[in-house]
Amino acid sequence: PIYVKTHDFDFEGSAILSEDIPDKRRYLVQYRHPLASIVSHYEYGLKVCDMMDSAETWANFVRVELENWKRFIQTWVFSVIEPRLLVPYQELTETPVEATAKVIAFMTDDSDVDMDRVAKCVAEHNIAGIQELRDRPSSMKTKLRDIRDFKYFNQRAFRKIEASIRTEYLEPLGLSPIL
Asked: Dihedral, CA atoms, 116, 118, 120, 123, nearest 10 degrees?
């Protein structure tokens, strides 16, 4: 098998999907709540992209990234792509053993996954970074953190974003509002 990992930041989904690799494709699509995703991308950008940290930068960033998140969801989640496994981010962080086993079963086309082995691997290799976050609660990562702790959190603005995408995105994805 051939495995390709992409965040599809360049929105090449349609090109990737049209490549001629008959009967060899399996799509594992991980997604998360848009506000958690956008905050995470912003903080990552501050660390590695020499991005200026300001309320204005954040306001522009959230506007652009919300549209990018929608585009990603439209391409990879709402489109009919088979075979595909959708894995919500919270499933990876809340039940990493079960989520990892589900991914292994999907990628290998074998439902007989050794759960003890998966549990040992998850524990030994810190899958999903859970232990790291427990050891360093001040981490900028948003995996287990309350989004309300974000520097530019504005309850009114965040609720407005959630309300604008609730029916079209959050509910169909099974994502609960954060606020």
From this structure: -140
**Predicted structure pTM score:** 0.81
Cβ neighbours of residue 80 closer than 8 Å, sequence gap 6 or more? none
Two tokens at 52?
């200026």
Round to whole Å and give the CA distance between 179 and 176: 9
Q: What is the rounded distance in angstroms from the CA atom of residue 76 to the CA atom of residue 87?
A: 12
Name the residue among 66, 73, 70, 95 with its Cα closest to residue 29.
Answer: 73
Residue 3 backbone dihedrals phi, psi, to 5 degrees: -115, 130
Query: With bands split at pLDDT 50, 70 and 90, how would you rate the model's confidence at 18?
Result: low
pLDDT in tens, 22-37: 566 788 899 999 999 9
Residue owning tokens 């008959």: 22
**What's the rounded Cα separation, in Å, for the pair 19 and 108?**
21
